[in-house]
What does this fold into?
Amino acid sequence: MVTSPDSPVAPAAPADDALTQLCKAAGDPLRMQILRVLRHNAYGVLELCQIFATRQSTMSHHLKLLANAGLVATRREATSIFYRRKIAHADATVEQFLRAFYRAVDQLAVAPQQLERIDAVHAERSASSRQFFQDNAERFEANQDLIASWRDYGDSVERFVSEQVAGERRCAVEIGPGYGDFLPYLSRHFQRVVAVENAAPMLAACQQRTAEFGLTNIDYLHADSSAAVLPSAAADLVSLNMVLHHNAAPAQIIADAAALLSAGGSLLITELCEHDQQWAQSACGDLWLGLAAEALDEWCAAAGLQPAASLYLAQRNGFRVQIRQFTRATAAHH
It folds into this structure.
């Protein structure tokens, strides 16, 4: 049917409006680069200003446009607002478009100077976290128990591993073992265990605590997750137990952990769900107020891992703990 120029135009469907707004908001070189940088981490306005060497008013304008279009989500962490990419959408068509769009965005190169500035931002975050653990190694356990004590969720973690983690039991790696609460279980069920800790006082406290158990198959390494001294032999299990919310770049530590896994190996993430109790940052050195399950899914997928089993626990004081298993496909390669 041919319509005349005066015929009324049919109203746009909700998906049409959303897609139009997305395309308008993304149609700028700087905003495209912002979305690229937000692939694996969340950043505050001042951090993004540092990364892109731009004024705060300019950056705030671009972020507002991206947020209004639904391309970024915001999250308050203490006194700062952090921005991350947003994929989930109520309309399946829009979400499908977003996933395809981000796959294209992620092919964009990040300028070397921006990579250097990103590293500088992460270094500032990490220095703050390390200093907290250097200064509070003796008090950390008492403060941490106010949020989530191993006594409250440890049995669930161990039962989860026994029931869900299949395959070989040759080597387990725990990154950030804290005081070593999980190590006795790992020592009993794996031939070799490697405990990796980047804060020397915490590593010393861990060794002192576990010495009473007479565990003879554990290697203690003062290193971070990307250190070359980590074992070249593939791990059947890598554990990140309440580690990521202290880490400046959670996606990077997940990628490091995934690189250690054997084919068919499991990454075990025990982590706080998102919460709004800001006192945890000053009391426990938390960089993030928990982490969204969707963010873990995205970061693990980028690291070549597949979601497996999950368990969510209700905790006291309003905190919730998520226990997540991700596996490396048997046909995958490092």
